[in-house]
Amino acid sequence: MKKRGKKFSMLLAAMLMIFSTACSSGGQSKEAAEKEEAAQAAVDPSQPSWKNDTSPITFDWYINFAWYTGTDWGKDLTSQYVTKKTGTSLNFIVPAGNEAEKMNTMIASGKLPDFVTIAWSDDAVKKMIEGKLVLPLNELADKYDPFFVSNVADPAKLSWYTQEDGNVYGYPNASSSPADFEKYGENYVSNQVFVVRKDMYEAIGKPDMSTPEGFLAGLQAAKDKFPDVNGQPMIPIGLHEFTDNGNYSLEGYLQNFLAIPQQKDGKLYDRQTDPEYIRWLKTFRQANENGLLAKDIFIDKRAQMEEKIAQGRYFAMMYQRSDFTNPQNALFANDPDSVYMAIDGPANAASDEPTLSGPGISGWTLTLISKDVKDKARAIGFLEYLTSEEGQRDLYMGEEGVTYDMEGDKPVFKPEVLEMLNSDRAAFDAKYGASHKYWMMMDTNVTDQWAPAPVDPFKQMMDWTRGKTVSASEFDQINPTGNSKEGIANTKLGQLWGKTLPKLLLAASDAEFDQLWSDYEAKRASTGLAEVQAYQQTEYEKNLEKLGGTK
């Protein structure tokens, strides 16, 4: 009995020692704790921390976009160069199907990959922060990389993304502050375009498609003259994919083309109720009644759309310009007249110029670092490198002497590299991997200084948006998210719209449309619309203060 008691005492002491050691290192192994201490000891606030340790390391990086295909890090010359320089390799993880399901599953598990890149507006951002699944970037920087905050990160962007607890959990890509807009605004272009296939459009007499009547007549004329494209049915009009929450093309895109304001006299304006918007939704309903909305547009995902663009099967599209790159190359190589070109699309009755979305301070995506990251110091250091001008140039231009040469103080792609970039983007990505193949931390305000002059067939689309591009930063991040009363109501409102929109387009008559719309408005009101709008107004006013006053 005494022997058993003695053994138990020894075992208990050993367990306490192990527990004590684990607690003292935050649950880490002794080796990991020592490595963190060494990383902190090596910090020089005046120098980038990524240079302190360039030993081999591989981070898992989750990209919350099922369409992203640039996951072959290490096979192209640019990623090889970055790994050679920093020691860092990346293992990209992309959802095979529904992004929201994959993200929610990971959040429910309580464990995330080292890095996460996700749309800034995604409800999962708040869930990750509230669940303490991601680390504050400012705290990581304080410990391991003060250079990130003092010399690299944009203070306006850090301020914009500072949460109520005083921490910053994500850093944006493609972000432009109001100061950036003042500095670079005249050169900004929008991604939002209304395009037509050039040869078809010219063959039907270049009709004015800015009015409902002209729009429907143009689609009909194209269908009549070109019922088939290489043996497959021509699709009169293409849109973004339909999701559980609606369709971008028939929401912000259409509203921007119609120049519908987002606020009036300091109060947010409910753009969905604007008469011009409803008039054009009825125009799309009429298009369906006329047999001009193909079934494809209700079911196709981005990959199928890109394939059909490359086949030239759409006559017109209200879509994002950036998704035409690869298909345009294929069309241009086959027949320069078969490419897509931007024209004046739907407009309001006064024919006002569109107010297309330009770069905003929220950017496009946020990148966050998981609490489970395998090396905190290396993670924040690599993020700092990618965000810095040096990292931007490496990812955009590649390696000097390999993909580009210096002409004075400007890096310029080698002729053979530029030729492939302009003629075969897929081959360029596979071989060189530069020019925003890896866009997760891209800062277009920095990289635009090195960007080669746009060429046909892409230049025309870009140029069409110049002068029509506006900043709408103050309207970003005003929607309630998470499990708050307003957040739950906003989620339900989005789902209600996602179910209603296809029904409106498929309505057999304007009278049926009107009844559906009346039912929709009643359901909106009973689902918490007033509370959501009050929340949005408060957040909008906070944004104005953050951005330095009213616009």
TrEMBL record:
Q: Where is this region: Disordered?
A: 29-50
Indicate yes or no for the key word Acyltransferase: no
Q: Which UniProt keywords apply?
A: Signal
Q: Which Gene3D superfamilies match?
A: Periplasmic binding protein-like II
Q: Where is the signal peptide?
A: 1-25
What is the name of the protein in this document?
Extracellular solute-binding protein
Q: Which organism is it from?
A: Saccharibacillus brassicae
